[in-house]
Amino acid sequence: MKQRLLVLLLGIGLMAVLVILNALTYVQKQKETDSELYPNRSTFNPGATGTQAFFALLSETGRKPIRWQESPDGLTGGKNKPTVFVLTGNLRRDVTDKDAVSLLNWVYNGGRLIVIDRDPPEELCKTTGNWKIKVSSNPAVDLLSVDPSDQKQMTSSTDAAKPVQPTIFTAGVNAVQSSRFAGWVSFEPAEGKTMYGYGNGSSRLFESLGDDSMEPPPAAKAPTAKRDEDDHAQLPKAPVVHIAGNQKNLLVDVPYGSGRIVFLADPYIVSNAGINIVDNSHLAINLVSTTSGTIAFDEYHQGYGTNANKLFQYFEGTPVIAIFVQCALLIGLIFVSQSRRFARPVPEIEPDRLSKLEYVAAMAELQRRTRAYDLAIENVYTDFRRRTARSLGIDNLTSKHTEFAQLIAERTGMNSADILETMLSCEAIVQGEPTTTSETVSLIARIRDIEDHLGLRRSKRNIAG
Length: 465
Description:
Order of helices and strands: HHEEHEEHEEEEHEEEHEHHHHHHHH
CATH architecture of the largest domain: 3-Layer(aba) Sandwich
CATH topology of the largest domain: Rossmann fold
Number of domains: 3
Distance between the termini: 28 Å
Structural class: alpha/beta
Radius of gyration: 51 Å
Number of helices: 14
CATH class of the largest domain: Alpha Beta
Strand content: 5-15%
Shape: rod-shaped
């Protein structure tokens, strides 16, 4: 019990030491600063690169935005099945092949996927039409030096983009201000000839005539003539350019099965810092208001969701997680050390089931059967002489028999000659003189009588003990 208590106290002491050391060595993680090099596009982020303002705007205007914090597998079922799914990059969790398949299956069955990114995952740049879709952007070395909250720095030398044609996305939009880092969407027929869409995205296409060095032509203005029914019938089969500027297709949507995938090549337009410029907010609302129902913002690929432990998320950035892991490891080591032996097994100690009287009786029986009367006399006489010498205050080893007999006689009033004779008889038997059973019993009886007169006989309680 004491050993277990010591181990318990030692474990508690070690845990206390670990807590103190972690608290002393903990360095608080600096809050990550918003930058266009490492943006945080989450709707939870109120910073310049976040989209919290976009989410709040939809809520205040009567829409039904939700934060989607599980894998895309759940898009095909459940009560909160969304009709619009918004994925804004840069992503902090990769889009796996399984995620891409789930998203594209959902779009194929009639969903609308809005991809707002300068460099979206290639797995999502797909269409069921006979086209190849690509979203590109220029490498920018000054992404880190630009303050994303400074509109002048973000939009310097960048003209506002204009609607290419009247569509449900461009309704009420006169101009959209993109950033200087905006990407562009290009598409080409699957046969290999590069063509750049302008206008209504139908048969009006520009062919490069095999000149690979030729830059994409500027997006043309919306046609004034009304589209005929044939063009309208062909519309779902080809990419549609909605907004373009600076010779870049900024907003394009493509068919995918029964649904559509919308590509917006600049997240700055819907970010907290850029959504209030010109008609950016109007365009953002139009993007997600094309169908009724729930609008899901992808937070799963922003690092939130089912793959993250809620308890660890709560204590993230504190020393509590390290303390918890270290204490769990320490407790595990204690349990292992207490449940395992680190040496060869020791046989179990067998309890002594014989009392002292049983031992004495067994020895007496052994001496009787072997006729070891001299040994019995030696045991009784040696014990008698030792206790008598202690009682009389003399030396057991140097005192003579006559002295013993005289002192015993003076103490008890017995005959000293009889006492001396008894002692000498015992000494002779101990030295090897033969004896009989009757003589042995007689001598032991006389020794017990002398002990009774001296008051040396043991009580029954002492004998039992």
